[in-house]
Amino acid sequence: GAAHNWPSVVQVKEGLTRRDVLVPSRTSYPCGGRAQCTLTRSPGVQCFLRHVGATGVSDHSGLYKFSVNESDRFWGAVARQRLSWISPFHTVQNCDFSQGKIKWFEGGKLNVSVNCLDRHVQTCPERVALIWERDEPGTEVKITYRQLLELTCRLGNLLKRQGVRRGDCVTIYMPPCPLAMASMLACARIGAAHNVVFAGFSSEALADRIRDAQSSTVITVNQGVRGGKVVDLKRTVDQAVQNCPTVQQVLVAMRTENTVPMTDRDVPLEEEMMKEDVVCEPVAMDSEDVLFLLYTSGSTGKPKGLVHTQAGYLLYTSLTHRYVFNYHDGDVFGCVADIGWITGHSYIVYGPLCNGGTTVLFESTPVYPNPGRYWEMVERLGINQFYGAPTAIRLLLKYGDEWVQNYNRSSLKTLGSVGEPINTEAWEWYHRVVGDGRCPVVDTWWQTETGGICIAPRPADPEAEIVPGMAMHPFYGIKPALLDTEVGEVLSSNDSTGALCISQAWPGMARTIHNHHQRFTETYFHPYPGFFFTGDGAHRSKEGYYQIIGRLDDVINVSGHRLGTAELEDVVIYLMVEEDVLAQQLREMVSRSIAKYACPDFIQVVRCLPKTRSGKIMRRVLRKVVERNTDELGDLSTLDDPDSVHEVIRGHRRLRGDGKQQ
Ligand code: WTA
């Protein structure tokens, strides 16, 4: 069995010993340098309006218009209000989509870890910054802002001792745990970039990413613990670094008490960091210095290292965290994503910590030890905002309402969904059963590329309606556009469907693809000149609400009618019948709910679909199978179950081999 104790490090000594807090130099802004635990205390739009200087504006839609029409004034004011600057910026934005040039807050200097830690230690050192919800229920560990700063500083000093310098990139291969978070923040503190690789990825996927990022340092744990099982993460790293000539050292933290083989390259993390000082001078970073790389699997299969920078990213995650979820001071924010995804970066780490919030770091699975896990945790930790993925919601729905109703969920105020379209049935269940019909459900649309939430039902006017399964409204500063995929023109009327683009820059957007700027401009800015192209299709309803219909390259075109995969799946996803009647029933359902033309000619039944570890179906793989291009499947290393592809291929051969429609 696993040892479920985290040794020594979380029992940090009380208090910082040398200097109590690290204070950045004051800026010349009236409120910029002040420590602000008040960031989430503001009563809402009115206070916000005063701060951004939107005079004459009194409601949400007025503020939204101001944010997109006077974007320099809006973002300039918000940046001065919400971030602590070491020196002020001189230019709010300097962007040119045609070259893929995106720069925000040039001239400004700041340190992200100071914004996330020091300024809160100054005002509320004993506030809980993070609750580490470990795999075994009831064994959570709470870490205050003071303790998290101490961990971060020690780690920052250790990284420096190991030769990590400003501008280097450190790869982090760790499950959600305080030292993973502290590692990210330690990089930010000393001016290194981080490259977090999801700790479920294979050694090949990890090696690819280490090589592309040219990391000399990797941080990992001896073993991970998830769903009651022990995973040998250090062993995966050992395999990966064999093919990574740049790697000089691997820092190994102890998540379990089991020893693992250590080589000359390996550094015992806790032992060495405890030798370090608790004070680590934060480096003054330029707004546009790199904060992190995060790899996403591109549609061609070659992963793209998207680059996010300091000030704009931090500002955008903090603002969206505050307003989309209506996060208030003292709330417990529970985002159950993994830190290896952008959702974890933005809404477990940077957004909540920048706001002085209390954030949950979830190590387990939705069904461990049983399907009541999320809601038992909600009760035990008093979670106020719960943010999860449709794939988990759909899974839990199947287990029935009792697993939810067994627990007290009265602390919940807002429920969020992210990652893929949430079908109506799952949305309704989330709202009615999980939220007892009283919590707004925010279906938040965004991407690794956008840095933070771009379209969501909130913020909006108080009491504004929320339509199930719709992301609905653009966030402040986001100006969406739908473009005709054939002629490339802007579709300006409502009740239209097209390629979802964003027509002006916002601070949270990615700046480039690491080492491949040309691929960046070609992917995002060339398809529709003058616009950022998201790759998704969307519908804008008669009322002007946005609904995401899924990746455009997944859209099926049948005699001029475009069908999103989400639209089809919304109809057919919950059918459970015997295989021989399945095909006929599916056809009938699709005809009835969408149209006759949407009826599939072939239906192939599979045990499971090729899915990524985050639950997304890898449709490019399915498309290649159908096109019989099985030699060009691309990178499969991020698949949850690579065998599923071979089964799909075999099944497809059988299906087509029959030569007749089923
Ligand atoms: C999809 C995750 C529908 C979309 C934050 C997007 C969604 C991709 C939604 C990005 C949503 C994300 N409704 N689709 N609410 N949220 N998507 O980079 O196709 O892992 O382009 O970022 O997920 O996935 P990524």
TrEMBL record:
Highest taxon of the lineage: Eukaryota
One BP annotation, GO: acetyl-CoA biosynthetic process from acetate
Domain AMP-dependent synthetase/ligase: 118-505
Span of domain AMP-binding enzyme C-terminal: 571-616
Catalytic activity as recorded in UniProt: acetate + ATP + CoA = acetyl-CoA + AMP + diphosphate; propanoate + ATP + CoA = propanoyl-CoA + AMP + diphosphate
Listed SUPFAM superfamilies: Acetyl-CoA synthetase-like
Enzyme class per UniProt: ligase
GO cellular component: mitochondrion
The EC number(s) this enzyme carries: 6.2.1.1
PANTHER family, alphabetized: ACETYL-COENZYME A SYNTHETASE
Protein name: Acetyl-coenzyme A synthetase
The encoding gene: LOC109879626
